[in-house]
Amino acid sequence: MSGARLIQPALLLAILAMVAAPALTPAFTGYDPATFPVRIERPAIQPAGYAFSIWGLIYLWLLAHAVFSLLKRRNDPAFLRPALPLLVSGLLGSVWLAIASSAPITATFVILVMGGLAMLAYLRADQTQDRWLLAAPLAIYAGWLTAACGVSVGVILAGYGGLSNTGSALVMLAVVIGVALVVQARRPAMPVYGATVVWAAIGVVLANWADTPIVAYTAAGGAVIVALWTLITLRRA
Question: Burial of 5 by CB count in 10 Å (0-12 exposed, 13-18 middle, 19+ buried)?
Fold first, then answer.
């Protein structure tokens, strides 16, 4: 059996491992503030807790993608193109929670690699063939990791005194929104990516509305910009 024929079964195993990881590791609610030189109890860049419930949908959609790929699109080039980067990203995702509980810097590096690979997989995915089981699950995964990478880097920047809590949140919001606009322009026919970034931005709005209004207003503005851009690019597609 050639290496290419092994990728789809391996992808399914990797996604299953990532889906199982939360049940095998302690509950993760953010990096431990005690591990940083500057102790920040509530990083401003971190969305409200409800926003993380999107992982349930991500897991189910990626699992559906992997099962459909293996059973119905075996050796289909459209499904093989994104399979390898998604496989490696999923493998990293299966160990990320265990790393994040005690090693924030390592976890940040890992999630940046995960996010980069998820983005590569998404950009390789066909937007027209089997779009809701090919491009869409990769879009939601890449979209959430775009935001998650920004959160992780923002927490590190503030926790190590590189920027203030508010300053790191504003900088990383700008980075995430900028990346989202570029990616959405590259994949205009798939609104799931932009919608996922909007979901994350709204989570930041709600987390900061009472205590850090400038971050809330910036996140709200970013959510509006990404939502409008997603609609504009969709109409042009």
Answer: exposed
